[in-house]
Amino acid sequence: MSALFTPLKIKDITLRNRIGVSPMCQYSSIDGVAQPWHMVHLGSRAVGGAGLIIAEATAISPEGRITPDCAGLWNETQVDALRPINDFIKSQGAVAGIQIGHAGRKGSASAPWKSGDHLSDEDGGWPTKGPTGEVFDPDGKRLWKTPSAMTKDDIEKVQSDFVASTKLALDAGYQMLEIHGAHGYLLHSFFSHLVNTRTDEYGGNLAGRARMMLEIVDRVRAVWPENLPLAVRLSVVDWVDGGLTIEDNIQMAKWLKDRGVDIVDCSGGGATPASRSSMGTRTADQVGLAGDLRKAADMPVMAVGYITEAQQAEDIIANGTADIALLAREMMRDPYWPLRAAQSLGVDAKSFLPTQLGTFIG
Ligand SMILES: Cc1cc2nc3c(=O)[nH]c(=O)nc-3n(C[C@H](O)[C@H](O)[C@H](O)COP(=O)(O)O)c2cc1C
Q1: Are strands 71-72 and 13-15 parallel, antiparallel or unpaired?
Q2: Reported pTM
Q3: Domain ranges of the chain
Q4: Which of 127, 131, 259, 295 has the most neighbouring CB atoms within 10 Å?
Q5: What is the pLDDT of residues 283-305, one digit of tens each?
Q6: Residue 284 and residue 62: Cα distance in Å, rounded?
Q7: What's 232's DSSP letter?
């Protein structure tokens, strides 16, 4: 019996297996609206057998996007484009999830294949905001915009945008909601003392820096149905000396659990230029940290980072390191990764492949 292919029930949602597609920005939306690309990108991975598909970082407001090409969830047009994608994902037996977030001081950039530089307002960019007015990388090769420090009104607007976006996610048919609290984007930048040097109640000690996230979780949990899972992605370490540690994030996880978060998605890095990216080589160490957090906070976790092999993913679940194994780049290489994993673990893939495929292969 494969642990990886054992269903998982979280709240009223059952995943057919423990394989998840990690959120991946596609930089392919128009005015935040999903395109046919998204149907194929997400739909093909549902056909391929993943249990959970988490749609890319989707901005709660236009100024919350990383780039003008990012996905958004602040109007009905966006909902109308996402609904058929989710209908399809669910028709294939997968669970449709979405990551909602705000880019903070890392917003107003151009897509990676355009230059990745920050866009001036004349070129389609927008003023950025963060916990402080400090620029992300003053000495870097890439240009970064100088943000303004968020006022209390700005904080209130972001929090109510999270609530509005959550309601739209429900309308669009999502079954799992993930709040993006990692990679140096707004919520992580509030939590990390590498960035947040505020002296008001949203800064200071760990509890003060966690306040932004926890207030949002309270408000989101109040509108996201109790029977549907709520997840938070954290950067469980900052990957630089003096940055957030796993202990800090275990405390955050306990606070999140108390507020009704069902599962923590354990990523890492991104707060500052020196803090490694979510795809750097240290990313492989995240899986073990996910296991540490799962044990210490006594709550379900998703592990991510260089998961490529079926036996590796099987061991992660069987050893109790994580409840769900998320794959990003390996899923890009092969949307049929779950089929191949089933074959190599001796699991009957016919049981989850759509009839159009399962009749002929398995
Ligand atoms: C093209 C691309 C886009 C990504 N976009 C997001 C995103 O929208 N939200 C997020 O939290 N992580 C994002 N990530 C990080 C992945 O979800 C994942 O955590 C990371 O790639 C490590 O997993 P891997 O080793 O399986 O690729 C992205 C990664 C890639 C390759």
Answers
A1: unpaired
A2: 0.98
A3: 8-358
A4: 131
A5: 778 999 999 999 999 999 999 99
A6: 33
A7: E
Looking at residue 278, what is its pLDDT?
Answer: 64
Reduced to 3 states, what is the DSSP secondary structure of residue 67?
coil
Among 19, 25, 177, 327, say which to mutate for ligand 1: greatest number of ligand atoms within 8 Å of CB: 25
Element (H, E) at 265: strand 263-267
Question: Quick one: fold of 8-358?
Answer: TIM Barrel (3.20.20)
**How, if at all, do strands 95-101 and 129-130 pair?**
unpaired
The distance between the two most distant Cα atoms of the chain, rounded to a whole number of Å, is 64
Which of 254-261's residues contact partners 24+ apart within 8 Å by CB, and which partners? 254/297, 255/210, 255/214, 256/213, 256/214, 256/217, 256/232, 257/297, 257/298, 257/299, 259/214, 259/217, 259/218, 259/221, 260/217, 260/221, 260/226, 260/230, 261/217, 261/221, 261/230, 261/231, 261/232, 261/299
- Give the residues surrounding ligand 1 with Cβ less than 6 Å away: 22-25, 56-57, 99, 180, 182-183, 233, 267, 278-279, 283, 304-307, 327-330
Q: Under a CB-based contact definition with an 8 Å cutoff, are residues 85 and 34 in contact?
A: yes
Beta strands 71-72; 52-59: pairing state? parallel
Let me know: does 234 contact 249? Beta carbons within 8 Å: yes
